[in-house]
DNA sequence: TTTT
DNA sequence: TTTT
């Protein structure tokens, strides 16, 4: 009852090598950024590319697999879940961050 | 070539009545928050609900339609695009915000 | 590596009560038909509804859950996999059938 | 209100060069088959690949673009709509066929 | 064979 | 700030 309620699908390129973190409880986390490019023609008929950068993370065996297998520049398709976290920073400002938690991926090129 | 590269699908409830803004150029923008609820059993076998709050916006005729038709509490399915904007706030801190730009929706209940 | 390669999402109404079959090996299968309705305006500006009927099946605990919980007329969202089977019928004609194997569903109304 | 109610996403390889048909009213139709491969480990721990063959069609500018741009063997991601048609054949048997009407595609490799 |  |  999960991926029907909250599902993100992206096709794009890694902006960095994935960063793997190992925790004491043998859990693994991987983080990386992904760029998606949308191209369209503007009012003047010029071809324009608009890029979105997304924060992606993955846990467990998916994290290990991503860390071993993907690198900067690779093109991937991913399916994940949209999550938001918020906290108060050292200056007392409320901060927000959105992350896509990756459930599955396919390496396409690179 | 767009929704294959960047697509978000959510089923959830509006946390507020949509806020419509009218711009000088006759363009309309609507903003609202949407809660998606995921339920699962934790280690102790207890039923737990985890809620994510998402920022949604829509433009044009979609904005007008949402403003006229949806209200706080309604359950909807939406399809949209994941976008990130960043700016420097008055204290010089870099700030980020993620929004889902709604392309299409279905009202389910409420 | 599965739902990224082959994924169907439908929102529609059950045309029948689900039919549950129990196999000797304790496996369960459920079958039902689902109608999806698309409405649009034709050349004359008339509102037209076009209906597609889909064959859906599910296995295991999902089958049991569907058999217990859903009935004719209910509106559901489903996620599944597109499968094709073919065989030769009693007259020697090659026959085809497409089924959506349901992985997950949400009951919306009804 | 369309792709939320009926949406198919496939990543796979073309089994043939697309066949383009031109109609009198300047409309174009393209047909091709697409194989999706799912790999998993069976009871004996052996890696197994299961292939599904899908019938795909597209209309209009999408048809022309596919005919010009894709060929047998290419890997593509597609988004489309699941449609079913049925008719009575020359022997009086009721026949069914399922087609995915392509709305959008990305060429991945090949 | 569904639903609005 | 929603809903079950």
TrEMBL record, chains A, B, C, D:
Annotated GO CC locations: nucleoid
Keyword annotations of the record: DNA-binding
SUPFAM superfamilies: Nucleic acid-binding proteins
GO molecular function, one term: single-stranded DNA binding
Annotated InterPro entries: NA-bd_OB-fold, Primosome_PriB/ssb, ssDNA-bd
GO biological process: DNA replication
Domain of life of the source: Bacteria
Record protein name field: Single-stranded DNA-binding protein
Organism: Mucilaginibacter xinganensis
């Amino acid at each position: 009852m999960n991926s029907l309620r909250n599902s993100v699908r992206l096709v794009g390129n890694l902006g960095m090598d994935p960063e793997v973190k190992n925790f004491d409880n043998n859990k693994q986390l991987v983080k990386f950024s992904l760029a998606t490019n949308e191209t369209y023609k503007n009012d003047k008929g010029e071809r324009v590319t608009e890029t979105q950068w997304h924060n992606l993370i993955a846990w467990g065996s998916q994290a290990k697999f991503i860390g071993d297998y993907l690198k900067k520049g690779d093109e991937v398709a991913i399916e994940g879940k949209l999550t938001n976290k918020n906290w108060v920073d050292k200056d007392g400002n409320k901060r927000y961050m959105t992350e896509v938690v990756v459930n599955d991926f396919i390496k396409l090129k690179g």
